[in-house]
Specification:
By secondary structure, this protein is an alpha+beta fold. The protein folds into three domains: 53-107 and 262-383, no CATH class; 120-256, Serine Threonine Protein Phosphatase 5, Tetratricopeptide repeat (Alpha Horseshoe), CATH 1.25.40.10; 502-660, 2-Layer Sandwich (Heat Shock Protein 90), CATH 3.30.565.10. The protein is built from 20 helices and 17 strands. The protein has helices at 6-9, 14-74, 124-131, 136-147, 152-168, 172-182, 195-209, 213-228, 236-250, 258-273, 289-292, 325-340, 371-374, 392-459, 465-497, 509-523, 546-562, 601-604, 615-620, 628-638; strands at 88-94, 97-101, 189-190, 193-194, 295-302, 305-314, 317-324, 344-349, 367-369, 378-383, 505-508, 530-535, 541-544, 569-577, 587-594, 642-648, 652-660. Strands 2-1-7-6-5 form a five-stranded antiparallel beta sheet, with helices on both faces. Strands 12-14-15-17-16 form a five-stranded mixed beta sheet, with helices on one face. Strand 3 and strand 4 form a beta hairpin. Helix 3 runs antiparallel to helix 4, helix 4 packs antiparallel against helix 5 (152-168) and helix 6 runs antiparallel to helix 7 (195-209). The radius of gyration is 55 Å and the shape is elongated. The two termini are 71 Å apart.
Amino acid sequence: MAKIPGWLRSPHSLPLLLGLVVALPAIALVVLGVRLLEQDRALAVQRRGEMAQSAADRVVRALEHEVNSVARQLADPAWMAERPAPGTVRVLISNAGLQVEPPSALAWYPSASHLPEPPAAVFAEAEAAEFQSVDLEMALRLNRGLAVRPDVAIHSGALLRQARVLRKMNRKDEAEAVFAQLGGTNNIAIDGVPVDLIARQAQCALALASGRAGALRGAALALQTDLNAGRWRLDRPTYEFVAERLSRWLGPDARRDIDREAMAAAVEWFALRSGRRRAGDDAPQTATAETRAPTGCRSVQTGSGMAVVIWAGTPDRVAAIVALERFVVREWRPAAERAARPATVVLSAAGDARPASAASGTGVVAGTRPASETGLPWTIVTDVPVHLDLGPLAARERLLLVGLAAVLILVATGGFLVFRWRRQEIALARLQSDFVAAVSHEFRTPLTALSQFNELLEDGDELPAAKRRAYHQAQARATVRLRRLVESVLDFGRMQAGRHPYAFQPVDAGKLVSGVVDQFRAEIDGRGFVVRCEIDAGDHTIAADAEALDRAVWNLLDNAVKYSRDRREVEVTVCAATPARPGSRPEVAVAVRDFGIGIPRLEQARLFQKFVRGAGATAAGIKGTGIGLAMAQHIVAAHGGRILVESEPNVGSTFTIVIERSLS
């Protein structure tokens, strides 16, 4: 027969065995629950992926409807006359050239406007005097003569050159007056740049050179306002040149219209791919395969954001709408969001290599439709949020989570209880071991005294009668102490088992305490202690078991002596106590006070537990069984009373027995 290991036969192994019995099935349930939860979550991910794919298909259909609706409108010849929606421009390319509605919506055009320019040969003599012979007076006189001609182009060109010569001659006021005169001329160009734009830039440059900051700021702000309002039809290099000069002149006050610039970039892209040159010639050029298609759409990523171009064409015309991102968000994105529900959707520029994740940001991108597959101007991304309720799957997941939480709580609670039980068992075993050691020591002292006095009496046949009597009295005290110890241990056991009988009779608490104090004084005679007893006048009759209450008071006195230090005084008082509750019966209080080591507040709650002794007593090496206060509390509780304690470390302690006074 197999031998049972010793640790299993130990009573302390029971909590561990119970813990294993509870823990192993619970761990198996947790592992099974986790596996089921993982499977359900994988199924939920698959379900969300399917929902996202379906949502992406719905978004594609919804946006195709919107784009096709716009394409049908573009085919109508009367469409160009309608007022464009905010955030859009309409573009028409035909044999007549490039038309944009509204014209001021673009920061620049694929080609500059063809304004009349004066013939360069007219100014040959004046420019030779200015640049070759450097005869500024002659150049000024010749330009003034040309300025009086009736031809507006020659007049404007002569004034511009006249102002330039005056500036070289450092006649700045006169030059500025001539530039101001040209500021109202907006139908003549010099080298493709409107004359009034040249003149107004020159005015800003003159103000800067003259150090007139206020004049420079005013002229530059006015120029910026007209530039952003689309006063001139400029090509891109001219626009960028003027905008860069304004940024230098205005600094932080410089403002660029990013919407107009985005529109211009998109129209430029469309015009170039529709066979239009960037500048100079409006004659149709070779179109790309993409824009030769009857209808089409494309998103254009500009430096200012994304714009969408949708076009429809015939052999002799191509019409298009260019929409900014804010128009897309306002007009087309709501249709995509309605189609995607309950998924979320993001529209990113076609060709974007890194499409944005869904707007919720709560899950992995699951449904993607590139623009190359759909023919739409966006890459479409849909995502199903992780918090979306998936019906039975979500309910099952919640049920599993609740079950796992319940099992974990059960395991944790069981583990805590087992741990606490085990710790209490170990603590109780330690206390019992300490109790046995303390009782053995307490028994050893009177037994040693009895043995010594017996030897003295046996060896001393000729002892004087007085000394023999003293030895017999010492033996009697040791015997009484030993009997008291034995009775205390036996009575405490009976009290714990509930088998201790109490004989309640009317007892004068004052007389009882006085008698106990007298006996105790005789017990400690010769140890240098002073025990004072003060009994107030009045009726102190209580219903009590005199022997049991005697033992309780004795234990309090014994503790007071044990835990005293240099001040070997004990004070005992018997008096009437204030009732704990108004209207209750009068009470008698028996207080025992010492001036010893005291008890910390944290230890006071455990004072009346069996085998428990304070840390101060252990540190000071004071011997004791740890049952004195527990026995006193048990006896007083059997009398319907209570024990109160007031203590402060290094000051002393007062234990007070309070019992209701007998009225019979």
